[in-house]
Design a protein that fits this description.
alpha+beta, globular
Length: 203
């Protein structure tokens, strides 16, 4: 890869602003907010999120994660994001663009919403915003998303946003309780028929 193509030189204007949320990269000092949201939502997260298999971390360990993710953002290796409510400034959604390839411009979205903020459509709103950001700002060719078998809440978000189902990978995912389940894979290659959303970034 030439110097001109070095991902570190790619501008990523932030934050991303939707009608109700402000989405920004995780940074130094976010460990406590991450910790509090994870503790509140742990029973749900432990059902589906592979990273919960080693148990809940301390606030200090979550701060290490926050600082590590900030470094990865600077290096353009991962974009883990936190979404706060405009009205309360409370951290309510944790999302981002992951496992991407800057050459092929392929990106994958992941998300979870803290328990007390669920039912407000924040997963749909933030994911819609990231789809638009990926295609408009990052020149994405493909945006992918997956969910484990029977994770119906996640499936509903994906369906609302018009992703095309590409595959069901048989017994491809190990859940935190060690059960092995199918993984459902979806993608978008454009923003066609994406629900309307007023979103802007870099301001």
């Amino acid at each position: 890869m030439s110097q001109e193509q070095n991902p570190v030189l790619i501008d990523l204007p932030m934050p991303i602003i939707t009608p109700r949320l402000i989405l920004r990269p995780i940074t130094t000092g976010d460990g406590q907010a991450i910790h509090d949201a994870k503790k509140e939502t742990w029973c749900q997260l432990y059902q589906w999120m592979p990273w919960t298999k080693d148990g809940i971390k301390t606030a200090e360990e979550d701060e290490v994660t926050a600082r590590t993710q900030h470094a990865k953002f600077i290096l353009r290796e991962d974009i883990m994001m936190l979404g706060t409510e405009k009205e309360t400034n409370k951290a309510v959604v944790f999302t981002g663009l992951h496992r991407f390839d800057w050459e092929s411009r392929n990106f994958e979205i992941g998300y979870w919403v803290r328990e007390t903020a669920q039912g407000n459509g924040y997963a749909t709103e933030s994911t819609n915003a990231l789809i638009r950001y990926a295609f408009k700002e990052l020149n994405a060719n493909r945006v992918a998303i997956t969910h484990a078998e029977d994770n119906n809440k996640s499936a509903r978000v994906i369906e609302k946003l018009g992703f095309e189902k590409e595959a069901v990978r048989k017994l491809a995912q190990t859940l935190p309780d060690s059960s092995v389940v199918n993984t459902h894979e979806y993608a978008r290659i454009n923003m066609q028929n994406l629900p309307e959303l007023d979103v802007k970034w870099g301001e």
